[in-house]
Design goal:
There is one protein chain. This protein has 16 helices and 20 strands.
């Protein structure tokens, strides 16, 4: 899809012989770790020490290195012999080689993901696109320590740790070219590399979508990006315009979007694996797509509005996931629904006290126009249950500030009415580096949703994350359902491992790690579904 104003992602390739990869390298990244309190050098160190006279352990000890994941000790090698021992005819020593000694902790996937992010941060090119010298070439042996899961995590860190987005005049610079060297039978690792580039790319795309300014990113613009993905990935697509939404009974989307000059859209994308049959399970993903949120007449304070271009992160995550399903050979049918609207202020604004009628007939009294996300999600969920007949339903949304108070900014909120589905998503989140914490659907709080004039109040109050989830649950029928409230993790305030300041794209990686499994619905209550027969990854 066309995503403006971002540099290219790092180019990553596999290599076998470290020595053959060194000529022309600008950066060499070698792993180190601590075993029983002793620093140990990883693969590639012996080959380097044959070429240069540097006491690497002494260097690490001098810097106080501990071997923690993502820790980096940098040293510049001025001798050309480290780059090309056969070229001794120049007296200038050639260009320097930057040596990065990278801590890998216990070499878990999480540790290796952090190491990958550290490598790419330290390898960012100071050059500008158009320079004759081109991008920096990075050679690293860190993945030689890893199995396929570790290699995949390392590459995800490489991709996402180098993310940047800005609209400044000038060239955004060049992404590094990274060679994963020192691997035994590198061709056997291609599947893990391709999976990493798919999941890392989805995170990259979701971040970019969230950061596009709202004077460009409207509901129509998002629908156009979805059309590009559908064309490139051969997905079926359907888009409802504002007239079709009104005539079709999508009162939540219509009501939220009616004040804006940028009309709402509902987008449906459909993926089917190559061996799909009538018995292939069907998953529906629903994403909140509020392209800007003023709060409506219940208007937000100015400071609280600054990041509201990112309130469509859920829809961006769904779109990024749909783009990569084929690359991961997802074995189940997947439909992505993007419920897109701009929550604006005008003479036609939705008012406190108004009642909207959702798809299927359920009504909501709007007591707070800033609780708009659940109104648009409700329409999409009700439509999915009534018309798409899914086996599983998952929604993702930057929905409530309350979940951020509960969980901070490193963990996403998970609500689910099925233990098997909750377990699947929890495992996927851990594998992807996007952890979830399950919160309760407490039925005792249902009474807070009561309205005197409608089926429910859209702003039932504290505890806010739970009452919002309970509101949505009424639109999910008897379909196993999970709700990802990612308002806690939609933004990162600082550089931290693979997170860069700003939008995180949280959810794209975990959903792909889940959906690529051989049977993503294993353990989920069946409601009569047959076991999947897909070819997804074990």
């Amino acid at each position: 899809m066309t995503l403006p104003n971002t540099p290219l992602r790092p180019h990553v390739s596999l290599g076998e012989d470290l020595a053959s990869e060194l000529p022309g390298a600008d950066v060499l990244a070698l792993p180190f770790l601590a075993e029983d309190g002793t620093l140990v050098l990883g693969p590639g160190a012996a080959e380097l020490l044959e070429r240069v006279d540097v006491d690497l352990i002494a260097l690490l000890e001098h810097q106080g290195a501990k071997g923690r994941a993502g820790e980096v000790v940098e040293h510049v090698l001025l001798s050309r012999s480290a780059r090309d021992p056969g070229d001794q005819d120049s007296g200038d020593g050639g260009a320097p080689l930057t040596l990065l000694l990278v801590g890998v902790g216990s070499s878990t996937p999480t540790d290796l993901r952090r190491a990958g992010a550290a490598v790419v941060r330290r390898s960012r090119s100071p050059q500008r696109a158009g320079d004759a010298t081109g991008p920096r070439r990075v050679v690293t042996t860190v993945p030689a320590l890893a199995d396929d899961a570790g290699l995949r995590a390392f590459v995800e860190g490489l991709v996402l740790g180098g993310f940047r987005y800005d609209l400044k005049t000038g060239d955004p610079g060049l992404a590094p070219q990274v060679v994963l060297a020192g691997l035994v039978r590198p061709s056997a690792r291609e599947t893990a590399l391709e999976a990493a580039l798919a999941t890392g790319g989805a995170g990259w795309a979701a971040r970019t979508l969230a950061l596009v300014p709202s004077n460009e990113k409207t509901p129509v613009w998002l629908a156009e990006r979805a059309a590009e993905v559908a064309s490139a990935q051969k997905l079926d697509i359907r888009v409802w315009d504002e007239t079709q939404l009104r005539d079709g009974g999508f009162g939540g989307l219509t009501g939220v979007g009616q004040a804006s000059a940028n009309p709402p859209r509902l987008v449906q994308l459909d993926y089917a694996p190559s061996r799909a049959s009538r018995r292939t399970p069907h998953v529906v993903l629903v994403g909140k797509g509020i392209t800007f949120d003023t709060g409506g007449l219940s208007i937000k304070p100015a400071d609280a509005m600054m990041n509201m271009k990112r309130d469509m992160t859920g829809a961006g995550v769904v779109l990024a996931v749909m783009e990569q399903l084929a690359a991961l050979d997802c074995p189940v049918k997947v439909t992505g629904l993007m419920a897109c609207a701009e929550n604006s202020v005008s003479g036609s604004s939705l008012r406190p006290g108004d009642v909207v009628r959702h798809y299927g007939g359920r009504t909501s009294e709007v007591t707070n126009t800033d609780a708009e996300g659940r109104l648009v999600l409700a329409d999409a969920l009700a439509y999915a249950v009534a018309e798409l007949k899914p086996d599983v339903l998952v929604d993702v949304a930057t929905l409530t500030g309350a979940v951020k108070i509960s969980l901070g900014q490193r963990t996403g909120g998970l609500f689910a009415d099925d233990d098997g589905l909750a377990a699947q998503l929890d495992v996927a989140g851990k594998a992807a580096g996007e952890p979830l914490w399950r919160l309760p659907l407490v039925a005792d709080y249902e009474e807070r949703l009561e309205s005197k004039v409608a089926d429910a109040d859209n702003a039932a109050g504290s505890p806010g994350a739970i009452t919002a989830a309970l509101f949505l649950q009424h639109f999910t029928g008897d379909v196993p359902w999970a709700h990802l409230d990612i308002a806690s993790v939609g933004d990162s305030p600082v550089d931290a491992f693979e997170w860069t300041p700003g939008a995180t794209g949280f959810g794209a990686r975990l959903l792909l790690h889940w959906l690529e499994q051989r049977d993503p619905l294993d353990g989920v209550r069946t409601s009569g579904r047959a076991p999947s027969r897909g070819r997804g990854r074990p």
